[in-house]
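Hey, I was hoping to borrow your eyes for a little while. I've dropped the whole record in just underneath, so have a look:

——
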Amino acid sequence: MAQPAGITRAPEAYDGAVWNILGQTYVLKEVDESSMAWHATFPSGTFVPPHIHPTQDEFIYMFEGTFDIWLDGQDMKAGPGDLIRMPRGLGHGIFNNSSSDVTCFFWVSPARELRQLFERIHNVPDPAEVVRIAAEHEVDFLPPPTQD
């Protein structure tokens, strides 16, 4: 499918697609076979647990707030103006441990099955069910760390 020319306005979603994923709001901005992009709002205390995209590179451009990032075994922080690069096959987790919202812009390349995943997990409240469904769409969540 070819990407149509045009503008997705700030308050709008491409194709009207807006998802609630475990308390975060994702507003689709574009999608075709080569990439998918969305605006995200992460309220304080929300996160995406460590996971791997075996077939996609993922990026986040930070607008407001601070993320704690776990990337390939390293802890990092990212704030406004930073670009987070998460190459395919590397484990990563995204955490808003601050007291304010984080707003940012995500994109993946290629798009693969990510839109279908977001459509299936929209408003699913059970993290275990989200993990199960994600595995069917090329996103593999990592087991929690072992406690010593």
In short: The chain has one domain: 18-141. The mean pLDDT is 94. The chain has two helices and eleven strands.
